[in-house]
Design brief:
The radius of gyration is 29 Å and the shape is elongated. It has 327 residues and is of the alpha/beta class.
């Protein structure tokens, strides 16, 4: 995977901060216990001294190294057990004096035996998603700002009350964001322009980002253009892999992008990779199914139709807002 240097630096900086915070908290606890219970502090110093004794023996070749190692290991384990028992007796957890790293596997260093730890890879992916999303001009919004009064509260010619339909849809999106997991369904948002597809998508994205999820959110056009530029060496990065690994991918405004075989192939790969990995995504479009069938090949359409459809109703909110403004 081609790494962004900025993403790597940001990921490593976050890990360094985690480690520093863990060790700072550990030192505060150590000083606290040393002040209250000197006998525990003496046992800790004894454990530390065994390390110096071992190093000295190795450097001077003085004595049987194997016997020394066994003796020191036995002494250390005995002293550690004494410390844990004393902590419990004094009302503390037995592991109170052990550093609490976010990742115990690598101790927040980012590496295990010289290989990048999973925690570092996840952070790199997170910051790469931040990088590819920073040029997205879609403003993130809150569900509380979704205005149902902009939708007609009357039965239309098809027997539908748009406001009630959108109330149900809004509540569905709220639950989707609150209950989001790896097994959440993929969504296909359909409806004419100006009905709130992008707005509700941005609400879901913001809710998930605040909960720590990695969300890649932008227009289909922007994502595909970046992928094309990377393929032809005009930009660095690996957007395809980022879109494969994100917790949630939101492709906004499907159908507005330029028509080309390169774009269709890239779009198919994004959607197909997510489906194969059983990772959720949200795709929105202003186009009708007839228009989509004319623009895309059957492979893309069949996969989109496997998503859970969310149909939007009403009239262009922008026009409604404009009329209200000029009243």
């Amino acid at each position: 995977m081609e790494l962004s240097s900025n993403a790597y630096k940001s990921a490593k900086a976050e890990l360094d901060k985690r480690r520093a915070d863990a060790e700072d908290q550990h030192e505060k606890k150590r000083l606290e216990i040393a002040a209250k219970f000197p006998e525990i502090s003496r046992l800790e110093k004894s454990i530390l001294n065994t390390s110096f004794e071992l190093s000295k023996a190795i450097c001077t070749h003085n004595g049987n190294i194997s016997e020394i190692i066994d003796r020191l290991r036995t002494e250390n384990l005995s002293n550690q057990r004494k410390i844990e028992m004393m902590l419990v007796n004094f009302g503390y957890p037995s592991d109170y004096l052990k550093p609490k790293y976010t990742c115990e596997k690598c101790k927040d260093t980012g590496f295990v035996s010289g290989i990048r730890c999973d925690c570092l890879n996840r952070l790199i992916n997170k910051y790469q998603i931040v990088e590819i999303s920073k040029n997205c001009h879609i403003k993130l919004a809150d569900f509380s700002d979704f205005r149902l009064e902009y939708y007609p509260n009357t039965i239309d010619s098809t027997g539908i009350n748009p406001q009630e339909k959108m109330r149900v849809l809004k509540n569905y999106c709220i639950r989707y964001a609150e209950d989001f997991s790896d097994i959440s369904p993929s969504l296909f948002m359909l409806g004419k322009t100006g009905l709130g597809k992008t707005f509700l998508s941005s609400c879901i994205a913001k809710k998930l980002m605040l909960s720590g999820k990695n969300v890649a959110f932008d227009s289909v056009q922007n994502f595909l253009t970046k992928i094309q530029n990377e393929q032809f060496g005009r930009e660095s990065g690996n957007t395809v892999e980022i879109l494969t690994n994100a917790d949630l991918v939101i492709l906004d405004d499907l159908g507005s992008e330029f028509s080309s075989s390169v774009f269709q192939s890239a779009l198919y790969n994004i959607i197909n990779n997510r489906i194969n990995l059983e990772k959720p995504m949200i795709v929105s479009t202003n186009m009708s199914l007839t228009e989509l069938n004319e623009k895309y090949d059957d492979r893309i359409i069949s996969r989109l139709l496997s998503f859970e459809p969310l149909r939007f109703f009403g009239v262009d909110i922008r026009q409604v807002m404009l009329k209200l403004k000029h009243r």
